[in-house]
Amino acid sequence: FSLFFCFSEIQYDKKWTVADPTDPTAPLLPHAEAVVEEALHGDGEPNEVLCQHEAIRSTVSRSDLAVLLPEGWLNDEVINFYFSLLAQRNDRLREEKGWPKCHFMSTFFFSKLIGGSFAGEVAYNYANVKRWTKKVDVFSMDLLLIPVNLGNLHWALLTIDLAKTCINYYDSLGGSGTHVINALGRWLEDESRAKRGVALDTSHCGANFWTRRSHGKTIPQQNNMSDCGVFTCEFAQTLSKGSSDFGFSAEDMPYMRRRVCHELCAAYIQ
Fold first, then answer.
1. Are the C-beta atoms of 160 and 167 separated by less than 8 Å?
2. pLDDT tens per residue, range 148-187
3. Which residues of 47-71 are buried (b: 16+ CB within 10 A; e: fewer)?
4. CB burial class (10 A; 0-12, 13-18, 19+) of residue 6?
5. Radius of gyration, alpha carbons of the chain
6. ∠ CA 109-111-115 to the nearest 5 degrees?
7. Which residues are catalytic?
8. Are 55 and 267 in contact (CB under 8 A)?
9. Which residues contact 75 (CB under 8 A, 6 or more apart)?
10. What is the DSSP string of 84-147?
11. Is the pLDDT at 9 greater than 70, yes or no?
């Protein structure tokens, strides 16, 4: 069994999805296309596990991957596995590439923080998530990336840039995310008091000059009601490399769904 596939006289590791990972819309390699076709259109059992990694506790089944078909709304299993792979890539490459040191939160974090309330701060409860960071010092990180589930209707991404003291909200429907920004700013303040015994003010007028920024429609926007999860994954994929150059658009989403599918199946993001 060979770990390589011969294409145009070049050998590619079968974990690879594209030949040039710096190109956000590079065509999938032939072996990757074959894997995607089988995963999305094969005859296996719905509960068959197609995505797993020894260092990741969760898995993704064939039925989970079906959300990557056109018009599918991404679920927690797909987004959490993808974020776990981004964390592995960050550990593997950040020193070599000069990327920020990142921590990737679960999709359940924000919902737990606000008690599942779409209104956000109304049901805010730090105690619900206080133990979620018992194994990590978030203040030793450069960048926190938090997928946000808004009422089981929409996905967005919030980042806390500790290196630049900035909270950023990325929404492919152009939402302001004010209640998300406020809730997670408040969480960071509570986290600082609880874990470091240090008072922190992340408001606009805070003494340590934190900024809060909603990127609105200045970032790529979706043109349907189902691609938000894919945008959230790709925003995180780009930002975790220390870049905000989103080289994709709504027209690229059918391709992005297939690219994510292979990355999940390979349990590897280049």
1. yes
2. 999 999 999 999 999 999 999 999 999 999 999 999 999 9
3. eeebbebeebeeebbbebbbbbeee
4. exposed
5. 19
6. 120
7. 154, 171, 228
8. no
9. 64, 67, 229
10. HHHHHHHHHHHHHHTPPPEEE--HHHHHHHTTT-TTSGGG--GGGTGGGGTT--GGG-SEEEEE
11. no
The pTM is what? Answer: 0.93
In single-letter form, the type of residue at position 72 comes to G
- Kindly state the tokens that stand for 200: 């922190």
Identify whether the C-beta of residue 188 lies closer than 8 Å to the C-beta of residue 248.
no
pLDDT tens figures, 82-115: 999 999 999 999 999 999 999 999 999 999 999 8
Q: Can you tell me the distance from the alpha carbon of 131 to that of 148, in angstroms, rounded to the nearest whole number?
A: 19
Q: Phi and psi at residue 217, in whole multiples of 5°?
A: -95, 20
User: End-to-end alpha-carbon separation of the chain, Å?
Assistant: 22
